[in-house]
Amino acid sequence: MKHRKSNDNSVLWFVIALWLSAFLLGPYLWIEFVKFCVWAGQYTWP
Predict the structure, then answer these.
(1) Membrane-spanning regions, if any (predicted)?
(2) Does position 44 have pLDDT exceeding 80, yes or no?
């Protein structure tokens, strides 16, 4: 167990940062995705 703990800590912080960014940007990205689907649907749907 030389550098195991610090390594796990960095991974944990990376996961937390990733989750936080997904949590904060999630709704915005979903709204953009829906807007894109509606915009694309105007041209692809009969």
Answers:
(1) 12-31
(2) no
Rg over CA atoms, the chain? 19
- Residue whose pair of structure tokens reads 């936080």 in the numeric block: 20
Cα of 33 vs its chain's centroid, Å:
13
Q: Assign 3 to helix, strand or coil.
A: coil
- What are the tokens at 10? 């960095």
CA distance 23 to 35: 19
- Number of residues that this document lists for the chain: 46
The residue among 38, 19, 41 whose CA lies nearest residue 30 is 38
CB count within 10 Å of CB 12 equals 10
Q: Which runs of consecutive H residues, i.e. helices, occur in 1-46?
A: 4-44
Which residue has 């937390």 as its token pair?
16
